[in-house]
Amino acid sequence: MDKKFSLGISSKIETLFNQLVSIKSDTGTILEVDIENYIWQWIGKIDYFKKNPSMYGKYLLKGDPLERFVVWALLKGKGKKTTILLHHHDVVDSLDYGILREYAYNPDLLQKKLQKFNLSEDVKYDLKSGKWIFGRGTADMKAGAAIQLVLLEEYSKLKEFDGNLVLLSVPDEESLSFGMREGINLLMKLKNEFELDYKIIINSEPHEREEDSTGSLYVGSVGKIMPTIYVRGRKAHIKDAFSGFNPIILLSKIVEKTDLNPYFSDVVGDEISPPPSWIYARDRKKYYDVSIPEAAGGYFNILTLKRTPKKILNELKEICEEASKDIMDYIDNNYKDFKSRTNIEDNELGLDVKVKIFSELYDQAIKDSGNKFLEEYNSLMEKIKKDIEYNRASVPESTFVIIEKTLEYIKDLSPMVIISFSPPYYPHISNIDFKELPMSVLTLADKINDFSKDSWNEEYKKYNYFMGISDMSYGALNASEEIAPYIGPNMPLWGNIYKIPLENMENLSIPSINIGPWGKDLHKLSERVLKRDLLERTSKLIQFAIDHVLRCNKQY
């Protein structure tokens, strides 16, 4: 690195970081607009953008009731080679801080208050060391935002710059990633308008460490998909329970067969994705009555490194069919045992549970009810849009409502399991999945490690996947033939409330790397970022990465 940035860069990062942390920007709320306006105004004060006001701006999220926007900036140098700096400016809320909530956005005051609390030994040690900065968003990811913004300003001062820099500051990453999903469309627009050749996305989420002396670089990001399971039973009074079918018992069996099941953990090299976790499961009763519930539903997360929506649908269908058989056998055996205790004649229950994916259910409703169904379906979708907009309904709950409406229009009234997907969906992505990459990208992680060892005697280990889920997922699309035909038709909210620019993702196909500061306890009361990384080292690593990618002449 031969570029000499101003000696006060650490001070600039610290000042901006403290200001960003102090601005509440809870995800999914109007508060995000406050920090967006601040960042937009901050960029507008940079001399380069004062002289070139068309090179930065606000990109409104289409159809967003909160009117949030992506803040973007383009630093135009020589040639087409372009590096993208990406960060998000929203944070999770501060409810977990309890009585300390008013101090969550003031690191200095918070650290004083935390000293009086009973904390874990690790947190106590870091608190006393003075090497860490505590507070909501300090690590995730106001630190990365401050570093990238200051680097943008520093690069804008160079008289000659080989290449281009695009900066995206996006909202909603902690929720549905609306910002980056729209940000991909913005990147396509800028690419076409300015003839940019995108070489890499540099994200700056905080990294975690297995050893204190070894940092982490990620050249991809884990995928996430949220299956929803809806079980329609058969209502009956509890005095005659065998005449009905309790959906809770079947849903419970499906949970048992999937929750924490390592079969769903993808393995790539020595990296493995965490097993599935159910986050909601219950009956669909709204009021108490002395009867078996008519339906039950739940949803869970599957994190992927290789699995596609097509494969997951096939696997879940098989599991649900196995669970249905297990439960029918269980009920039959209990019924026979129950009857054996009396003189009542033993009749066959004749249970039959069907398993369908949502697209099959939707097609059946059209076949059975035609336009009448489609009119009701479209009317319901308009209502759901407003309910979600005004926080009267959640996204997963709305998925269940759509399934229930669809079931009303099919003639088959037997017990049934419906498998669908609920937003958000994050495709897995990794540079190892690209068929061809420039040498500058292929060697980047190794070169950063060499630079870090030479500079501070600190190593950085490369991982193929960032396991924390990130916006990097939308920079490219692999195995599109196993995604597009299966995700949309089986996600009831697709195209109306939620969509992903799959075509632009596939066309752009931008590799990525995450270079961020060391952070701990994200989304917790003890969230913190390493001061040294924030103020000194991470900015140098990112600067090295930018220069290496833009200046390397070897393409393959």
From TrEMBL:
Pfam families: Peptidase_M20. It comes from the Bacteria. InterPro entries: Peptidase_M20, Peptidase_M20A, Uncharacterised_RocB. Gene3D superfamilies: Zn peptidases. GO terms for molecular function: hydrolase activity. This is Arginine utilization protein RocB. It comes from Maledivibacter halophilus. The lineage of its organism: Bacteria, Bacillati, Bacillota, Clostridia, Peptostreptococcales.
